[in-house]
Amino acid sequence: MKPTSHPPLLVRHAGNPILTSEDWPYPVNTVFNPGAVRLADGSTLLLCRVEDRRGHSHLCAARSANGVDDWRIDDRPTLAPSIDSYPEELWGVEDPRITWVPELRRYVVAYTAYSRSGPGVSLALTEDFRTFDRVGSVMSPEDKDAALFPRRVGDYWALLHRPVSTIGAHVWLSFSPDLRHWGSHRMVLPARGGAWWDANKIGLCTPPIETDRGWLLLYHGVRQNAAGCLYRLGLALMDLETPERCLLRGDSWIFGPEAPYERRGDVENVVFPCGFTVEPDGDTLNVYYGAADTSVALARGSIGMMLAWLDAFGSPAGRWD
Ligand code: BMA
Fold first, then answer.
1. C-alpha of residue 3 to centroid of ligand 1, in Å
2. What is the CA(312)–ligand 1 centre distance, in A?
C-alpha cells in the first residue's frame, strides 16, 4: 500500500483571486481560464477568457511585471471572434493554451472555437499578442483542451487535444506537417472509470511542461456526482521523444476546489488552469487557473517535487483501473 499523505504540490497565492471582472476596463461578466507566457523582458502575459454579458467569450491580454499584481489590461478584446472568415467562432473563443515555438519564432495559441456544432479546436499564431494570424479550425467538434508541443516530434508538429464521444472523453495526440492538416491520431491518456476522480472525462490543462524526465502533463478530471461536477487536477508524465507513451500517472488528484472563490461562482467547484510560467530557477512553477468560471487565481509548485511525487505515488500504464 502506497503512503498517501504528502505536502501540497500546488500552494495558492495569498492574494487570490489575482484578477476579477472588477479589474476590467470595459463591462464584462467574468474572467477566467487564462493562457500564460513569460515574455522576453521577464514580465508575464495572461490571455484571459472573458465572458461578456451575452454569454459569449473572447480573449483579452493582461500584462504584469511580477505575474501577480499591477496588471495592465488591454482596453478592448485582444482576440475577438471573427465570424465572417471563421464561422466556427460564432458563439465565442475560449480557454487559450499558449506555446512559444522557437522554430517559428512565434507563439501558437490553441483555443476553443464555439460553433453551432459545438466546441472545436482552432489555432492562431502571434509575435506580440496584438496581431494574430489564424490557422483556423483544426479539430472539428466536439473537441477542446488542446495545446501544441513547442517542437516537432520527428518531422511533425504534435497537438494534444480532447475529442468527446458518447462513451468517454480522453486525451489524444495528433500530428501535422504544417499545423493545418492533422492525422495519425492516437489516444494517449484515457479517463478512468467507475468511482475514480478522473472517470469518464479528462482534459489537458496547461501546455506540456518539458523536464529532463519527460513531458509533465497537468490534466483535469471531471467527477460527476449528485450535486453536479467537480473539476480537479492530476499529473502524468509522457516520454520525451515519444510523447504518446505515458510513463507514469498519479492515482490521486493533486489540487481541487477548496477556497471560497473556487467553490462559489458562475460554475461551482471548478479549478481550471490553461497556462503556466517557470521562474528563472527552472523549477518553480506558476500555474494560472480559472476559479469557478468567475476569476483568475495563481498557485505555485515545484516541478522537481511533482516528479518525485509521481515516482512515489504514480502508476505505469496498465495499472490504472
Ligand atoms: C469546461 C470548459 C471550461 C470551463 C469548465 C467548467 O467544459 O467549458 O471553459 O471552465 O467546463 O465550466
1. 32
2. 31
Instruction: Please name the residue ranges forming H helices in the chain.
Output: 260-263, 303-313
Calpha distance 50→73 (Å, rounded): 12
For residue range 15-31, list pLDDT tens digits in order.
Answer: 999 999 999 999 999 99
How many A from CA of 286 to the centre of ligand 1?
21
Residue nearest to atom 2 of ligand 1 (CA): 95
pLDDT in tens, 268-300: 999 999 999 999 999 999 999 999 999 999 999
Q: Which ligand 1 atom lies nearest to the CA of residue 32?
A: 10
Tell me how far CA of residue 265 lies from CA of 35, 154, 269, in angstroms.
20, 44, 8
Residue 198 has what pLDDT?
A: 97
Give the bridge partners for 38, in sequence order: 44
Map out the domains of the chain as residue ranges: 11-315
pLDDT per position as a tens digit, 68-108: 999 999 999 999 999 999 999 999 999 999 999 999 999 99
Determine the atom of ligand 1 nearest the C-alpha atom of 266: 12
Instruction: Give the confidence band of 3 by pLDDT, cuts at 50, 70, 90.
Output: low
Q: pTM for the whole thing?
A: 0.97
Q: Are 139 and 171 in contact (CB under 8 A)?
A: no
Ligand 1 pocket: which residues have CB below 6 Å? Answer: 33, 94-95, 231, 267, 270, 272, 290, 293
CB 125 within 8 A of CB 108: yes
3-state secondary structure of 36: strand
The CATH number of 11-315 is which of 1.20.1440.60, 2.115.10.20, 3.60.21.10, 3.30.420.10? 2.115.10.20
- The residue whose CA has the least distance to atom 12 of ligand 1 is 267
| Cα-to-centroid distance, 203 and ligand 1 (Å) | 10
